[in-house]
Amino acid sequence: MDSSTRTRIAILGSGFGAFSFLKQLDPEAFDVVLISPRNHFLFTPLLPSTTVGTIEFRSIIEPVRTAQPNIRFYLAECEGIDPAGSAIHCKGSLDGRRFSLPYDTLLVAVGAENNTYGIPGVEKYALFLKEIADARTIRQRIIACFEEACAPGLAEDERARLLHFVIVGGGPTGIEFAAELNDFLKDLRRSYTTVINDVRITLLEASDAILHVFDQKLREYTAQRFHRKRIKVRTASRVKEIRERDILLQNGESLPYGLVLWSTGIGPRPLVRALPFAKDRAGRLLTDEYLRVKGTSHVFAIGDCAIIEGKAFPATAQVAQREGLYLARTLNRRARGRPEKPFQYVHMGMLAYIGGHRALADFRGVQSKGFGAWIFWRSAYITKLVSFKNKLLVIFDWLKTAIFGRDISRF
User: Fold this and answer.
1) List of residues 6+ apart from 311 with CB closer than 8 A
2) Parallel, antiparallel or unpaired: strands 200-204 and 164-168
């Protein structure tokens, strides 16, 4: 089919929703352009593992240009949408050049950003874990803390501060990072024998329990495991301010830190906040059961930036992926003149790594924990990786870590 007669589809984003949509879409029926400030898809469930070198960075990314052979891709960020003129306005990520692109159908799948809740100092002093660059920054900072702590003549209180790692947020990302960091200590022990016993890991959670999306027994099991591993879990601990060298809690307590990871939740991106479409109280775009943005006919939204009106889906990669697959199949059916069906989400369950070759698996009516769940966790993620190359690389990384340990170089 000639490109001039095909429906022009513009995709904003390169996360789970957009990438799943792109891979499933019929390239013969549509003229596809993808706009994103990054040129790769990131398998975020394994991102915490890269912060300590259990898995290498490039093992969990896949270039978006390989998803479909005939797409056009622009390394740029969308700054605005003109629904009346069916156009998007973009800015190049490298050269800053502004340009506009027309569309017949638009998919908004830009995800969300870290929610700081307006707490002073978070943006300036805390580290986040959303992108590969974040993971590399964390990896460098961990090693830097150990190297600084080994400096001669350092005061004991300063050494204690440098080796205090604080995670704010008791969701899956915060829990998995705490687990990976604790595992990393086994490798660090051989090289930092004089300071390793000064290491402390503290997890702060504002609510009364960690891992709210999991079954209560699994939450309790995780808390017990962390206690045995000397990971201090503090619930009902709200952060008032983050300063350069310490965290101030709402109760007035001050916690000195060497590294603080902020993993408390997500909020809408500036683009989504600026769009003239209906939104829910959290700032997400409201859609109908066909994932059309409310009040439009050719604008769709999926993933963390959107929510079906009247529904309450978790903000997970699983939801975004399922929405992307559904929407691509729906548009494929429409192009062939076939009837469309509304989106229906069936939750498949949750997985989380909690350290020491232990994991959690929470499925419908079935909960599992321990070593068997860890085997299942690894097997499930291997099958979900998008390419055979990624599967091989991750397996090799796991094998390499098991034999040689994690690398402690800082670069």
Assistant:
1) 345
2) parallel
- The residues near 32 (Cβ < 8 Å, ≥ 6 apart) are 9, 11, 22, 25, 68, 70, 71, 72
Domain of residue 134: give its range: 122-265
What string of H, E and C letters represents the secondary structure of 255-321?
A: EECCEEEECCCEECCHHHHHCCCCECCCCCEEECCCCEECCCCCEEECHHHEEECCCCCCCCHHHHH
Q: What is the number of domains present in the chain? A: 2
Helix 16-24, helix 317-335: angle, nearest 10? 30
Q: Are residues 309 and 190 in the same domain?
A: no
Instruction: Return the bridge partners of 168, or none.
Output: 204, 262
Looking at the fold, whether 142 and 177 belong to one and the same domain comes out as yes
Higher-pLDDT residue of 2, 85: 85
What's the rounded Cα separation, in Å, for the pair 287 and 42?
A: 25
For residues 223 and 234, state if they share a domain: yes
Separation CA 9–CA 87 (nearest Å): 11
Q: What token pair was written down for 212?
A: 């709210």
What is the rounded CA–CA span in Å between residue 145 and residue 343? Answer: 48
Dihedral Cα 308, 310, 316, 317, nearest 10 deg? -20
Domain boundary pick from 247, 265, 283: 265
* Mean pLDDT score, 47-53: 97
Cβ neighbours of residue 131 closer than 8 Å, sequence gap 6 or more: 38, 42
| pLDDT > 80? residue 78 | yes
Domain's final residue, options 335, 351, 381: 335
Q: What is the pLDDT of residues 165-179, one digit of tens each?
A: 999 999 999 999 999
Judgement on whether residues 182 and 278 belong to the same structural domain of the protein: no
Q: What is the pTM for the complete model shown?
A: 0.94
If one counts every other C-beta atom within 10 angstroms of the C-beta of residue 203, the result is 25
Between strands 299-301 and 105-108, the pairing is parallel
